[in-house]
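Input sequence (377 aa), recorded before submission:
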Amino acid sequence: MSGIYIHIPFCKKACHYCDFHFSTSLKKKEEMVLALAKEIVMRKDEFKNEVVETIYFGGGTPSILEVADIRLLIDTVYQNYNVSGNPEITVEANPDDLSEVRIIELSQSKVNRLSIGIQSFFEEDLKLMNRAHNSAEAKKCLEIVTQYFDNISIDLIYGIPGMSNEKWLQNIETALSFNMPHISSYALTVEPKTALSKFIQKGIIPPPDDEVAQEHFHLLIDKLEENGFIHYELSNFGKEDYFSKNNSSYWLGKKYLGIGPSAHSYDGVSRSWNVSNNALYLKAILENQLPSETETLTKTDRYNEYVMTGLRTIWGISLERIETEFGKSYLEYLNQQAEKYIEDHLLFIDENVLRTTKNGKFLADGIASDLFLLNLE
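Predicted structure, token format:
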């Protein structure tokens, strides 16, 4: 089972914290849709033995496309790939793009899951992040969308400068009041070269506080688990049967094909990525070239990736798999590196699987990097 990710590299405006690849000029939108469709066809042989279980439109802002464009891209996948009987087809969307007419059109297409970038229900947070929607639009959109879609995820951001615990809890309560079956939530991070980073350097906005973010994270876990959510990945909470199949496949090491500028692909042994430049991407596809670079992953690379994804998820790191797939020396190294974290109650071993404790979760990425291997090869 595998997935196809389609990157839509356009946004109405640049959010202050975002460092993903996109353009705010929509002049080449139609050309881009045709190029994406062409890349889907050009790469079908890479997946000739695969069953496509998920199709995911990410970005950028996929909801900027006409529904006809989304249909065209989905149909192109169906015509050229072996798609499972009941695939998960997700479109990332912003509240300001989701009018009732647009929601109805999407619900009449093959799209069966929406991931909506709410980020916060408070006006001042949305302004600080330079989001294109306001608080009223966020709530209105969820009121309508829940009438037409059952499988919905929303994004929320915590650790925003000036956000108190009470305000963060209010954000979570508001999300719960719409009966969302899935919530993705991220700490506000300051990426280099973003507007947010410049504002912090100039002292216009205070930097995010790690301790506040950690408190928000633990409040989030408690509140969502009380309400029947399963914390199945560091940033993701789903009700039973509502985990994101697309994202789970990345964490479980399944194959995926990334279509569009800056999109990454993985086939189990190598990783490739397309050029992060719309003009260069369009030119290459027009000339029947794939504008991508590839790296073959070493055994150590694969070990490090498994450690990273394993610690982020409820599936943990199988010590048996470490030994059978990578060998005894890797297992010994892992056990040795994990020892101090087990003593500090940040990691624990249960049924031969290494997992993070509740206190270890927030620190998972840092712990993983300490378990990485640098030079066994």
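Checked by second reader. The first strand starts at residue 2 and ends at 8.
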